[in-house]
Amino acid sequence: MVVGLVGALMALAIPGIHYVRRGVLAKKARADLEYLATAVQQLVWDTGQYPYNQDITLRNRGLEVWDLTSPSAGLIEDNGAYPDWQGPYVDRILLDPWGMPYFFDADYKVGRVNKRVVGSFGPNREGRNKYDKDDIYIILD
After folding, report:
1. Tally of domains within the chain
2. Rounded Cα gap, residues 88 and 103, in angstroms
3. What is the per-residue pLDDT across 50-87, written as a single tens digit (0 to 9) for each?
4. Is residue 95 classed as helix, strand or coil in its secondary structure?
5. Which neighbouring-strand residues pair with 137?
6. pTM for this entry
7. Which of 38, 85, 97, 99 could share a disulfide with 78, CB 3.0–4.6 Å?
8. Mean pLDDT value across residues 6-19
9. Rounded to an integer, what distance in angstroms lies between the CA atom of residue 131 and that of residue 139?
10. What CATH number should be reported for the domain holding residue 22?
11. Which letter, b or e, does each residue of 80-106 get, where b requires 16 or more Cβ atoms within 10 Å of its Cβ?
12. Are 97 and 31 in contact (CB under 8 A)?
């Protein structure tokens, strides 16, 4: 009888634990994004430029940086493209709690309006111009 009662309590607790864990991971992502948003703003104040993708083969050149650790992002190192660069603006950029790089997007859809954001693709890890409900982002404008 005791084993059955413990099993029933565990069955009730497991979904709650999952919900709490998901909330903790989202808070961690938001804290990381606040840090990155401050770094991006400092880059803009020093250089007059947001992070941008310098790959000329991309059609939407400059609108997204899918990995903020890349040299073209300008946060960790200067690849020569940022005048008056005074970084590094961050010492390192970690992956989000779901194992994906944080991103910068200059035309992220918030409602029907494009905004500059730093973000995470969230728990479903789906992104790159797929705007869904579980994305976590901070608006820079």
Report:
1. 1
2. 17
3. 887 554 344 445 578 888 878 778 999 888 888 899 98
4. coil
5. 119
6. 0.76
7. 85
8. 56
9. 14
10. 3.30.700.10
11. eebeebebebbeebeebbeebbbbbbb
12. no
